[in-house]
Specification:
about 300 residues; mainly beta; 2 domains; eight-stranded mixed beta sheet; seven-stranded mixed beta sheet; 6 helices; 21 strands
Length: about 300
């Protein structure tokens, strides 16, 4: 059962500074956890509307669940009090803004079975833009004689948006034909480490519709959750028509990992670097033979003039 933190605990939190400066006798037992963002472009105070926090003991069994409102978070400068009775090792899984409309939490009774699931819309696919979700996990130790202790958890954004632009070079799509773009790969089910769950291996991405066409450039928007360097994420570009069926594929993660900047660094070759981005722009230029002439990812070319860089 999720516990809503009552008003008196808000007042306890507001009295934290007095506990620091004066006597500890009247302070509650527990852990004060500061909420921070691990992504430079976001501040917790700008994105947090609600916090759902799961507390596990050293065996990985659920001890308690807490829900902190916006009022509590603002009043306590985005530092939450987790009341603890016993000293020991604990683990925390925390979610910012876990809208019940878009997400489901399953298996929360144990750390190893915890799952965050992006709810499918139809035909078991993701066909709408989910609300932004932020995730944190941390192990921590609590020592009761100190009455209260400080700790900090850092949030990553779990939702990712792809903007895919497709341009046909020296080729015009016949009126009776259509250009179909989709991303294929594991999607939408994550464990307590925010890694892809192995219990359900496949949840397809949406099959998007063309949002606009400007001068033969087709724009698609695809929504998903976090992805990792080990994922097999494939972009499929497919032309269909009465007399035509042509397709080409791009391995997104492999292409991102291969990007090299002028100084020799690789901006997307680790999970931590991928997690710093929440929006990816992919531009694909196809020649008349439906082969990739150019591929640009977040303003960096991986293929130019038909040559892989």
């Amino acid at each position: 059962m999720i516990k809503y933190i009552p008003t008196f605990l808000v007042l306890v939190g507001l009295g934290l500074s007095n506990c620091v400066r004066d006597s500890l006798e009247d302070c509650p037992y527990g852990k004060y956890i500061c909420l921070r963002s691990a992504v430079h472009k976001y501040k917790v105070e700008d994105v947090a509307r609600e916090l759902l926090l799961y507390l596990y003991d050293h065996r990985g069994d659920l001890v308690d669940t807490f829900r902190f409102s916006t009022t509590y978070l603002v009043a306590n400068d985005y530092t939450v009090l987790v009341p603890l009775q016993d000293s020991g090792s604990y683990s925390v899984v925390a979610l910012l803004n876990p809208s019940a409309q878009h997400y489901e939490i399953a298996g929360a009774e144990a750390l190893t079975t915890f799952r965050t699931i992006l709810k499918p819309d139809r035909a078991d696919t993701i066909a709408r833009k989910p609300s932004d979700l932020f995730y944190a996990h941390k192990g921590m130790v609590y020592s009761k004689p100190k009455h209260f202790e400080y700790d900090t958890i850092y949030f990553y954004k779990s939702t990712v948006h792809f903007n895919v632009y497709v341009r046909l070079d020296d080729y015009k799509l016949p009126k009776e034909n259509a250009l179909f773009v989709a991303i294929d790969g594991n999607n939408g089910i994550f464990d307590y480490l925010n890694a892809k769950s192995t219990r359900r291996l496949y949840l397809p991405y949406m099959a998007p519709v063309v949002s606009r066409v400007i001068q033969e450039e087709y724009h698609y928007q695809i929504e998903t959750m976090d992805f990792r360097t080990t994922d097999r994420l494939t972009l499929l570009v497919h032309e269909t028509g009465p007399y035509t069926a042509r397709a080409d594929t791009i391995h997104i993660v492999e292409a991102l990992k291969g990007i090299t900047l002028h100084n020799g660094s690789h901006p997307y070759d680790t999970n931590e670097k991928l997690a710093q981005e929440d929006e990816y722009d992919l531009t694909v230029v196809l020649d008349a033979g439906f082969k990739i002439l150019e591929l640009k990812m977040n303003d960096w070319y991986t293929i130019k003039g038909g040559v892989e860089l």
